[in-house]
Amino acid sequence: MEIFTMYYLIIYSFEMIILLFSSPILISYSLAEPIKAAIITFDDGMLSQFTYAKPILDNYNFKATFYIICNSVDKENRMNWNNIQTLEEEGHEIGSHSMNHKRLSKLSEENIKYEIIESKRCLQENGFNVTSFSFPYNDGDNNESILKIIADNYYIARTASEPLMLFQCRSETVENSVEDNDNKYENQFHKYLTENNENELQSDFKRYTITGLSHEAYKKSGGHSDEEMFEQFIEIVESQTKYNTETTIGAIPILIYHSVDYSVDDYSINPNLFEKEIEYLFENGYKIFQMKDVVYDNEEGLHIQGH
Ligand SMILES: [Zn+2]
């Protein structure tokens, strides 16, 4: 009996030694991997975001940013104020997606101000202090007077249609990466950088034209199957790794969702596909940030706080 106990003690100590010796190796291995990150955003305040997407996010404890159209709250198929309050109480971020979801560039200055400023006040009146705006239809994101009004009233703003948000301040990583052109997203990054360098307006207002990717747009453009959309999703979120180090985020995919339901609407994603995407991010160790984690300072420019 004693011998038996000793045998176990020896085995146990041996295992402890192995653990002690292997842990620094494991730690250094994980530090050498570039950080993978994503921001999950929702536009339009659809009720399906609450009924279908939130429970999936909850399963993985992922927190997102929800952009609300103030005048659409409590309308058919939209969230009510209680839903939105629950989101905020549970750690999700609330942002403004204007008052009425109109194309800003088509409006008079008075109405532009109403859509941008009044929506912030409206959300405030209902208990939400928002610092972030998202452009309806991505419209007006190249219009100086619109950008100025946004800049006077919000900390940052999100538009669309680039697969990754590239932080210019991380240019050292970026310059090395754009040289190899084997990735089809590279050209877009390069184009984006060149345009940004040439276009002072966009450069000055970069924090108000943060780009995200409306994933459902693929559905619209070519009738891709859910399988193909999932493959594209993986390709996009993984394409950031060459811009990132183990501690620095040089590029981050900002995912934009609208409805999450079983309809065949262009701006809807099937909950099963949504779950697959969220599960992928979880299983592959993605760090999930919110729009409020995108910060600006003179020294580092636009970046993810702490990275
Ligand atoms: Zn919208």
What overall geometry do the principal axes of the alpha carbons give? globular
- Helical content, roughly? 40-55%
Order of helices and strands: HEHEHEHEHEEHHHEHHEEEEHEEE
Low-confidence stretches: 16-30, 169-194
Number of DSSP strands? 14
Give a written overview of the molecule.
With 307 residues, this protein is α/β, with parallel strands linked by helices. It has one domain (39-297): Alpha-Beta Barrel (TIM Barrel), CATH 3.20.20. 46% of the residues lie in helices and 16% in strands. It contains 11 helices and 14 strands. The chain has helices at 2-32, 47-60, 81-89, 109-125, 144-153, 171-178, 184-198, 200-204, 217-222, 226-238, 271-283; strands spanning 37-42, 65-68, 93-96, 132-134, 156-160, 165-166, 210-214, 251-252, 254-257, 259-260, 268-269, 287-289, 294-297, 301-304. Strands 1, 2, 3, 4, 5, 7, 9 and 12 form an 8-stranded parallel β-sheet that branches. Helix 5 (144-153) links the parallel strand 4 (132-134) and strand 5 (156-160). Helix 4 (109-125) packs parallel to helix 5. The longest helix is centred in the N-terminal third of the chain and has 31 residues, at 2-32. It is globular and about 50 Å long. The relative contact order is 0.16. Residues 16-30 and 169-194 have low confidence and may be disordered. Residues 43-44, 97, 101, 136 line the site of zinc ion.
List the helices and strands and how they pair.
Layout (H helix, E strand, L loop, with lengths): L1 H31 L4 E6 L4 H14 L4 E4 L12 H9 L3 E4 L12 H17 L6 E3 L9 H10 L2 E5 L4 E2 L4 H8 L5 H15 L1 H5 L5 E5 L2 H6 L3 H13 L12 E2 L1 E4 L1 E2 L7 E2 L1 H13 L3 E3 L4 E4 L3 E4 L3
Parallel strand pairs: 1-2, 1-9, 1-12, 2-3, 4-5, 5-7, 7-9, 10-11
Antiparallel strand pairs: 6-8, 13-14
Helix pairs in contact: 2-11, 4-5, 10-11
